[in-house]
Amino acid sequence: xxxxxxxxxxxxxxGGAGFVGTRVVSQxxxxxxxxxxxxxxxxxxxxxxxxxCVRAVKDIDIVIHLAANIGGIEYNQNxxxxxxxxxxxxxxxxxxxxxxxxxxxxxxxGTICAYPNYTPLPFSEEDLWCxxxxxxxxxxGLAKKMLLVQSQAYRExxxxxxxxxxxxxxYGPGDTFGDDRSHVIPALIxxxxxxxxxxxxxxxxxxxxxxxxxxxxxxxCARAFVLATEKYNKADPVNIGSGMEISIRDLANLIASLTGxxxxxxxxxTKPDGQPRRWLNIKRAEEEFGFRAxxxxxxxxxxxxxxxxxxxxTQ
Length: 315
Known about the structure:
Elements: E1 10-14, H1 21-31, E2 36-38, H2 50-57, E3 62-65, H3 73-78, H4 80-100, E4 105-109, H5 138-158, E5 162-167, E6 169-171, H6 184-198, E7 202-206, E8 212-217, H7 218-231, E9 238-240, E10 245-247, H8 248-259, E11 264-268, H9 283-289, H10 297-310
Parallel strand pairs: 1-2, 1-3, 3-4, 4-5, 5-9, 6-8, 7-11
Antiparallel strand pairs: 8-10
Helix pairs in contact: 1-7, 2-4, 4-5, 6-8, 6-10, 8-10
């Protein structure tokens, strides 16, 4: 469905060459006729450098900020300082540069990691400040959470239009399957595919398997960002998710089945589970800009596994 919203707009998508960003760019092109979509690359535009942020937002109408330094539990444990600094400074400087340039609107990608470790279920946006995040990813979660504070402060003082979205764990074709930065779904897919090929008798999964997660197919997430950019203009943060919860144990069993792995699955309880449960209240996104996820998890996993196998496991 096309809309006149994008016609003639000059759009900056940070992280636009990445996992989510490529889908956002594609969906913007399908939704309208922007004058330009600018996708800065980190080699030439370092958003940790103020001058690069100023240059990036020059003559831009819409900023969608997706760029982030991000990884799984192990990466978070090994890089807490880097994750805090990089994600905070990129967002803070970009939003300030956009304000000074009188950009029409900024859309900020937050993170589910910003929620308190023990949040009432399902996670509602009103509970975002009711406790400290899960320790293994708190530096990342808090860095991104500060961008919500900045966004709301700028709206109050400068009447600056920026919105803040909270996407849940994402997955899909093109995800990062390397061991140090990959999240749970790509890590499990890689592990089970390799175990099947090598005829390994067992696969070990981090944690007890009792923790739960909610997952969203990457194309659904991109559609949510495009809809919110077009239709949402309020200070309140918005959850972006599927509304479906699954335990890591059940997820591992499902991925094993879909990859054809028939060996034993072991859970290493000496490794951290991360946050005990994640399950979002997604009513606000549907009410405010009509977003609901459309890709069922099994179908999304099948597409992701097929892509991984066809890519030769090089990601």
